[in-house]
Design goal:
The chain has 9 helices and 5 strands. The protein is α/β, with parallel strands linked by helices. The protein has a single domain, classed as 3-Layer(aba) Sandwich (Cytidine Deaminase, domain 2). It has a 5-stranded mixed sheet, with helices on both faces.
């Protein structure tokens, strides 16, 4: 006899309402690297000002500088550890172009901009996303400095990305991104690691 039907919750990525009006203040095409990163850093800043989420922003652009998809950290508001800014931006970009491989087998060239270097989770997702360039503002150590657990990452991850054809450029407007992180800490923003730092050190060892 067939048992009762089980209904499971749906996981839907829906950007915060403030992002639409916020992006209206920016041109659709941002031709320079610094313009694109400035937008991403402002996303991280506004994400803190408009809610309870972390100080992280990201965005995917095509090679001409057209915004394909923005992303902000939504871990706390959505109760989902997967919703880091990079993961959100990549997922929405793939939805926008209609395929899981943004690069379409190397024929297209998309760029991921992020206000802080990717954590271990986001680092793992990037090679399968199809992007060809990664631009970072604040460093991994800047996020760790205010208490965020960035996970265990290979020391040579940039070289590994390069071997896959993904070019990496770091420290783009770093000081501006770091100020957002520090401001979040000063305001008492929640540091939402999954376990106490001491327990994490026992598992991962000294960093």
């Amino acid at each position: 006899m067939k048992g009762p039907e089980r209904n499971f919750p749906e996981a839907i990525i829906r950007l915060p309402r403030w992002i639409g009006p916020f992006l209206e203040g920016f041109p659709l095409l941002l031709s320079s690297r610094d313009e694109r990163m400035s937008l991403v850093i402002e996303l991280s800043r506004m994400n803190v000002e408009n809610g309870v989420n972390g100080p992280f922003g990201a965005a995917v652009f095509d090679e001409s500088g057209t915004l394909v998809a923005p992303g902000v950290n939504m871990v706390l508001s959505e109760g989902c550890s997967l919703l880091h800014a990079e993961m959100v931006a990549l997922a929405l970009a793939q939805k926008a172009v209609g395929r899981f491989d943004l690069g379409q087998g190397g024929e297209r060239h998309f760029q991921l901009f992020t206000s802080t270097e990717p954590c271990a989770m986001c680092l793992g997702a990037i090679p399968w996303s199809g992007i060809s360039r990664l631009f970072c503002a604040a460093r991994d150590e800047d996020a760790r400095a205010i208490g965020f657990d960035e996970g265990t990452k290979p020391c040579d991850w940039k070289k590994a990305f390069s071997s896959r054809g993904i070019l990496v450029e770091c420290d783009v407007l770093r000081s501006q991104a770091v100020e957002v992180l520090k401001s979040y800490a000063r305001q008492g923003g929640k540091i939402y690691n999954s376990r106490p730092p001491a327990a994490d050190k026992e598992i991962n060892g000294k960093r």
